[in-house]
User: What shape does this take?
Amino acid sequence: MTDRALQHRRTHNLLLLQRFLTLREGSSPFTLVLDSLEQSGRPLVREYVQRAKTTKIGIVYVSFETPRPQDGVTTVVNARRKDSAVLQKEISASCLKNSKNLLIIDTLHPLASKPSMNLATFLSSLITPTVSLLAIYHLDIPLSPHTASPYHPSPLTLLKYLATTIFTVHSLSQVLARKRAADRSLAEPVFGLAEETEGVLVGLGANDPRGLVLEMEHRRKSGREIEEWFFLPASKCQPSPADRTREKIMLLEDHPLYRPQVAGSDPSGEVGDEDSTFSLGLTEKQRRDRENVVLPYFDAQKDGGGGGGRILYDMGVEDDFDEEEDEI
Assistant: This one.
């Protein structure tokens, strides 16, 4: 990829993420957030709420597991132990209060765990031209075996098919640990439940307070998929006006800890020998000797190099010179 194409990709993907967070018209009707015990998706939801407040968009929060939603939420719908039809009417009535709404569902597991629930129909009925849906799905919580059917896709597969944008959140500390292992050709470390260690639920570096890593998958109307990794710094509880106007999201590849500058590296591009068992550089004497080396057929490059092919040959004493053959 050329430098121009690389810069275009970086700029385009950053602007695309800003459109999602600010809920531009038709940017992403259904956004699915996949989180786990290693990294919660609430910081991303908090970023959505803060940006929706600045643009005066109505925020409807459907609470299954959140006792107290964060500040800025316009309407809270308590969804515990409610029938799906009743819940749908309450959500639709709450969304009629504003001309544009952000609908947040804090977890989809209660809906996906109901055998009689048609998840695709229920979610599709909530999405309108004036309502954008943001829903969280916890990857570490297993579903009831009674909801599994060999003739239907799993709820997670169905949600990934319905969503126009999927954000999988990761811990920055764990992403950096995997990156260091990959750079050294080591086995990728595992964390939390993947360690399969008795008594370990959350791994080291989970929910890094510095921020979270976003793995974005977006499907355009044409079917083309866009994938990118971002870093979202931890936001303050009450950001200043200067912080609201300055964009803080960056590509993961631009993070200084993800691509650190090698200590003692030569800016000219010379390879250092800090990690090698032998010297890769040249001494001053070796540099001079290399410059004085005469390359093969160097005189052909200087004298008439562009005038066609010539064979330069110095005859030795053992050569038999025949004038007739040489005249051919």
Remarks:
- Residues 3-21 form the longest helix (19 residues).
- Confidence is low (pLDDT under 50) at residues 262-272.
